[in-house]
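#dry-run=false #mode=assembly
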Amino acid sequence: MSGTEKETGFTFTIDGVEIKAHAGQTIMEAADAAGVYIPRLCDHEGLRHQGSCRVCTVKAGGRSVAACTQPAAPGQAVENETPHLTKMRRDLVEMLFHEGNHLCPICEASGNCELQAMAYRLDMTEATKFPYLEPCRALDASHPDIALDTNRCISCGRCIRASQDVDGKGVFGYVGRGIHRRVAVNGENLADTDAQVSDHAMSSEVCPVGCIIRKRVGFAVPIGEREFDKGLIGHEIEEKRK
Amino acid sequence: MDNGRNGAGANGLTASSCNVAPVPQSEIAAICERFGNDKHRMLDILHDVQDRYRCIAPSTMDAIASHTDLTRIEVEGVASFYSFLSLTPKGRVTIRLCDDIVDRFCGLDDVVAVFEDVLGIKLGETSADGAFSLETTPCIGMCDQAPAAMVNNVMLTSLTPETARTAAEALMAGQAPESLVSDRFNELSAHERAVRMVENNIRHAGAVLLGPVPEDAGLNNAVGMRPSQIINAVEESGLRGCGGAGFTTGRKWRFAASEKLDRHFVICNADEGEPGTFKDRVLLTERPHLLVEGMTIAARAVGAREGILYLRGEYVYLRELLEGVLEERRRRGLLGKDILGVKGFEFDIRLQLGAGAYICGEEGALISSCEGLPGEPKTRPPFPVSRGYLGYPTVVNNVETFCHAARILDQGAKWFHAMGTEGSHGTKLFSVCGDCLNPGIYELPYGHSVWELLEMVGGTDAAAVQVGGPSGTMIGRDSFHRKLTFDDLATGGAIIIFNGQRNILEIVEYYMSFFVHESCGYCTPCRVGNVFLQKAIQKFQKGLANPEDIDYLKDLSGTIIETSRCGLGMTSPNPILSTLKNFPLVYSAVSKPSKDGIRDTFDIQSAIDGARKIAKRRSYIFDKDFTQ
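#status=ok
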């Protein structure tokens, strides 16, 4: 983006709060910069926007759109934290829980898991009404330093983009379609790829759940002292406003 | 996981008993070379590999990846997305029986039984010698002559148990699929082949498309006009897209023309996949020149030199006919350089064959597919008219729309505008099927009521009519006065008629299984939510639903519609919502509250059945009657 475009600033509102933005920014980018948190799972700082989890759905000019891909527009009135949108987002997070096998009490990502933390933030505190799909997906422990438990994968694709765009590798990709669409690896199994534990794609910040597991470091920080045990997901963005 | 009825699974990933012969690397190299080692031609490469080796084996994926400068997982992503591509070997003859609700009502089960009996394999299986695969596939666009099947690239229609047996026995005896059509198949012209396999069933020809059409009259006029004049004419005619969404065609062309990039594209969407739609099939067979003429006019209007005709994989039997038409037009100077002798007017078209994916009818997914990617919709904005195929401004219109445009340039905007109703101008092709005397194609001006259409087609005992296919609306007798226009009952063309003998819940469950099968899986609500909807409908079918389940259906549908990324998820709950609205009694009749306020949704007998079979003994505790 050129300097002049960047200077073309404008404002719009999120839940009545005036937000500064410039041409080319998405609603979410502008909100993040202004300290307004919009829940998201597939979007992650430093990675291309994908718009697939739909948890960041907001209403802009009366239409429901994904805040991570929708460009901010001058004078637009965006709704973010309304009971209606929170309910939509909770439905989506519940769908992700029911699509895979998420056994929080025995998962080593518990307390560091964005899916779990999002469920708490969106007040998913009781048993849900959806049916469980109970898939049976193979565990890939072939790699000396990394294990994959895709039962916990939520198909956010952050590992795919991190490996392609940051690591310049392409260890992961999507295969299949519909309910069978899955993240898979570039070979027979993970040991067959050029994946390394030091890749950005394998870092704990990229995988939002406990699917990409670094061997021999599990439970290093005790449950109760983990990232989302201390504050709601998104608090670090919201603190910018204080 | 329940994925509808299709025995082959979503991606044809069913394990198979036959082995993969090692594929010589030089042959893969030759196939890739033929498409310039261009990753954007991945679908063509994979088609060739599949046709030749009956599967895309892991070793071939590695080779294709290295020739096209991709990773293997990127190749696998494409190969595993499309239903007609398979990672495990298919039979040398693959029989795909059309599993549409209309085919089911016309006796699909009996036809399946015959094929299973003669071939000695079950649905979803490949014979041990690798000779045959038998599977089902969603609507192949032959609902007016159901049950129908694809046998490799040959279409069989109006099957009965008798004709199915004859065909299956001939195949078993080693005859080529083509011989099922004619002993002299090789001597027939491409058009003769098409009409021998598939009836046109044109029941009513209107003034625009199916009546007499002079050759290239529209194009002759267009070359004498400035691009802006062409766009004005199309806009003034009131023509709207005939694929279902109904966007104003002239405006679409104007947006694309105003983009100042050095390449522009014109793409024809010949991927009609909505169950019950088959109008484009007839236009592709009988009016292919008119279609290409329309595309050429659009190219002149928006300044495009390159075009793509995206033909759905199910219509592979029309490929030769269409390739022939393109070739003939090149020869006659109607495609290529200096068209009709006009200096600098250059345009050519390549045919892109799809591979079995309904979602590719969505504009962005269709462009992805043309680019050699899995058929996933694109993020909007940007819209295709500004950044489409390969990032260039792209006009995507449906077959019928291009044909209309050519006629408008011939006869004038006023002529077209005068037909139909306010807001819905001109004529529309309706593909009518189901419980009526005369299924087929009707070209009518917009504005007829459903009742008038039913009288025309001999379907007056209809109890329900599905207008616009599963993503449209199902109406009952109290709504048959409603009009077929964009403002009342909008439709891409599908009219499916059901009489009082049909089970509405069975129809709805089928349509939901269709959407589950055809969702691309990109976004959460469509990928997961539709599976939940299908399961909920099954609960109603089994009589296990509570009245609260009706609220659940509405609530979940609302979330899917509001949060989905493209038109598929935004309309997939329609079979449920429109039947809940128009046939509420069907749902309330099977969702009575139980006396104790609790309805048992857990069936212990079916839950332990798997274990019972493995253990080969009964349960002393749960089997009520051990003598059974």
